């Protein structure tokens, strides 16, 4: 459909509802707050209509349709993908799109149904269910710790080479528990990376100390290629939640 036709229909729709639904810039189109609510309501109505048609047709016995799920990269590979595989084997009429990214994904804007979120959740119209907690861990290879020594407190990190994973914390400041006030420790990063896998691989190679989430390093700790340190100083564990749009779950 030509862009001019789309613009004309959009303008007519905005006149009909009496509100601006999209903010136009020179490079992008962004939903306004009324636009978000209107889109969410329309999707819910269409989903309910589809469900009603299935009920009339007698197709309600088995889940069907496409399910779009997003999760952090390593968590998705280790935990979501195995569940996904078994789920798809059990329900052959369901297809799934699995998006593994280390960023916050907007479910409605990106057409997704379920999100695995690690950390505190913002207020939203999405339905959230807490499914567990995950802790921060600080670790290094046994070879590095033998050569450079094991820090007994976070403040001793200033004397060590560090590998910073920027999706988790600031490159040069790591936060630890410190009573009522968290300790913001200045570190000296020898390497700054944007993925947990890169941070873990560099630590395994003996480059320095890194800080990631517990599940990201579980395999390396189990095979003893990395050793946990400063465990008594880690902050409280953070929540793991499932967020979903009620209107887009596959029909049962």
From TrEMBL:
GO terms for molecular function: DNA-binding transcription factor activity; sequence-specific DNA binding. Residues 1-32 form the HTH lysR-type domain. Belongs to the LysR transcriptional regulatory family. Keywords: DNA-binding, Transcription, Transcription regulation. This is HTH lysR-type domain-containing protein. Pfam families: HTH_1, LysR_substrate. One of its GO terms (biological process) is DNA-templated transcription. SUPFAM superfamilies: Periplasmic binding protein-like II, Winged helix' DNA-binding domain. The keyword Cell inner membrane does not apply. It comes from marine sediment metagenome.
């Amino acid at each position: 459909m030509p862009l001019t036709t789309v613009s004309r229909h959009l303008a007519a729709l905005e006149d009909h509802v009496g509100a601006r639904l999209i903010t136009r810039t020179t490079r992008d189109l962004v939903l306004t707050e009324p636009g978000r609510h209107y889109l969410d309501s329309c999707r819910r109505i269409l989903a309910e209509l589809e469900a009603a048609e299935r009920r009339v047709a007698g197709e309600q016995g088995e889940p069907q349709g496409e399910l779009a799920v997003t999760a952090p990269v390593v968590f998705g590979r280790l935990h979501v993908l195995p569940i996904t595989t078994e789920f798809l084997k059990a329900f052959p009429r369901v297809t799934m799109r699995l998006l593994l990214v280390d960023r916050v994904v907007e479910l409605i804007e990106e057409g997704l149904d379920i999100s695995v979120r690690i950390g505190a959740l913002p207020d939203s119209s999405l339905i959230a269910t807490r499914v567990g907690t995950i802790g921060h861990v600080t670790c290094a290879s046994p070879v590095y710790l033998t050569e450079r020594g094991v820090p007994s407190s976070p403040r001793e990190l200033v004397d060590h080479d560090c590998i910073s994973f920027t999706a988790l914390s600031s490159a040069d400041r790591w936060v630890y528990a410190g009573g009522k006030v968290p300790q913001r420790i200045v570190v000296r990063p020898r390497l700054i990376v944007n993925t947990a896998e890169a941070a873990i691989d560099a630590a395994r190679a003996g480059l320095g100390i890194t800080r990631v989430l517990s599940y990201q390093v579980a395999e390396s700790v189990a095979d003893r290629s990395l050793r946990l340190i400063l465990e008594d100083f880690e902050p409280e564990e953070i929540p793991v939640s499932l967020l979903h749009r009620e209107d887009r779950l596959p029909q049962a």
